[in-house]
Design brief:
two-stranded antiparallel sheet; single chain; about 35% helix; alpha/beta; about 190 residues
Amino acid sequence: MVPLNRVEQIILGRVVAPLRRPLDEGEPIAAETSAPLERPAPAIIDRDFVTEPVATGLLVMDALFAIGRGQRELIIGERATGKTAIAVDTIINQITGDLIRVYVAIWQRATAVRRVIDAVTAKCNSARCVFVVAPATAGPGLRWLAPFAAMTIAEHFRDRGQHVLILLDDPSHPTDHNENRTHAVRRGC
């Protein structure tokens, strides 16, 4: 496991807004380094093959849809069908692994986000998690920036040789800003 630098120690275990404002009771996050929110994705030839599995903790899902490190998966479905529950179970299942988890809540009610954070902190070590939150009450600019900010955080860890699981949880209508999510995910974290 790669040792954490000071920036990583400050951000891990925190609940932050897309522009680095803390939403938890922790100290303000001082930036020692910065990275652009938009940058080109690594070329396909530079990416590694998917060789290591990521267990979601749901046997049926792991058997039917084996997910590997470096792979992108999309969970789509109607409202209230358990998509967030799958994401939370996957985060919790990584309790013994070396994955850093980045959970992005976009357009969620504050109570729903609090439930997710409480579930994760109650069942696993949230010191290897970052929660990026752009609630329904946030302005449209912050909601648009949330996936980009989360990808930038995840890319920081990736560039240091660490493994990252990033989960974007967005209950809004798929056509509202599907293009923005696709652009952020296309970056290849």
